[in-house]
Amino acid sequence: MRLLWVELLDFRNHRATRLEDVASGVTAVVGANGEGKTNLLEGVSFLFFLASPRTSMNQPLVREGADAAYVRGEIETVGGRALIEVEIPGRGVNRVQVNRSPVRRKRDLRRQVRAVFFGPEDLDVVRGDPSERRRFMDEAVTALWPLRGSALTAYERVLRQRNRLLRDWEGRGAPRGLDAWDAELVEAGCAVTRLRAEVGERLAAPAEEEFHHLAGHGLSCRYRASVVGEPLEEAFRARLRDRRADELIRRTSLVGPHRDDLDLTVRDMGARSFASHGEMWGAALSLRLGLAAAIEDEVGEQPVVLLDDPFSALDPLRQERVSERLGACGQVLVSVADPAHIPVSAIRVWDVSAGRVTVRER
pLDDT tens, 45-58? Predict the structure, then answer.
């Protein structure tokens, strides 16, 4: 999979940036902080995800003084080429076309093109609350199987409705309709649990391999479901019966995938509590590179890899190891603030200054 060209108009601080003939291997995006290198990677990511990895709002994406931002580009896959055009208004709904035809569901595009984005915010996957790791697992689900991502939204809908019922309960008798919502929660929750378990199986080995190459020692990545047992549906129903009294007291759902976690251990100790900052950063980066490997195994071609400032928290030896590794990752765009961090495998450099890009060969 390869990004052929990209154009940003009024996107963040990029008034008009067009880059032709994007290199097949590693491209380094170089610039001081605040010049627009991360904005450029963010714009590229929009072609794949139809969303920003940095914000859920449109307004910050639109250059000051403009009414809308535009991102255009063409991506080549084994199945053909996809011309993607996105209009991002400051207010309102994005308009997306693929090969000049409107696209209304993100999953319709995600079936065709795949990418992986790593940024400093990924550190929270390792050091943050379990909700950050659940979010990562769900992102992995939609990256690997876009059409199956609807199971995640179905569970969130059922969970919201069930929690509303518990919250509004008047406290006398059993909440009316709770048994029906229990059945819905079991069905939707088991689907999510099985998806996350499959993600854990696909992700563990490549992520552990990436970390071992980076750090020289092990990373263990294991999905910890809140409900276990066979058959899973019966185990789920039994857990709901056991926690019914507690749920009525606390007025919220206490059983289900919203209580899951992803156990990450380094040197046989929990990464969140005992890993160094550099080890946490390396683990977060390894999870994304492991996801890229899992996607390649699933779809038969490498996704485009977008790495925002991946070297900043690594010592020189580990910077060198990551740099060497990127040469085998297919098409990679990697941003760096320090020219000394340009990967040895980079064949092209995009110098970014005040939202303007200059291309040079190495």
Answer: 999 999 999 999 99
Transcribe 52-119 into DSSP letters: -SS-S-SGGGBPTT-SEEEEEEEEEETTEEEEEEEEEESSS--EEEETTEE---HHHHHTT--EEEE-
Residue 272 sits in the same domain as residue 325: no
- Give the residue numbers spanning the domain of 226: 127-300
Is the distance from CB of 305 to CB of 296 less than 8 angstroms? no
pLDDT at 333: 98
pLDDT of residue 171: 84
Residue with tokens 């490997």: 293
CA-to-CA distance for 95 and 333, rounded, in angstroms? 26
Residues 117-121: what's their mean pLDDT? Answer: 97
Residue 306: per-residue pLDDT: 98
Indicate the residue among 247, 275, 300 that finishes a domain: 300
Q: Give the whole-angstrom CA distance, residue 70 versus residue 68.
A: 7
Element (H, E) at 144: helix 130-144
Q: What percent of the chain has pLDDT over 70?
A: 100
Same structural domain, 307 and 287: no
The rounded radius of gyration (Å) of the Cα atoms in the chain is: 22
Residue 331: CB atoms within 10 A of its CB come to: 22
The SS3 of residue 262 is strand
pTM: 0.96
Say yes or no: 89 and 18 in one domain. yes
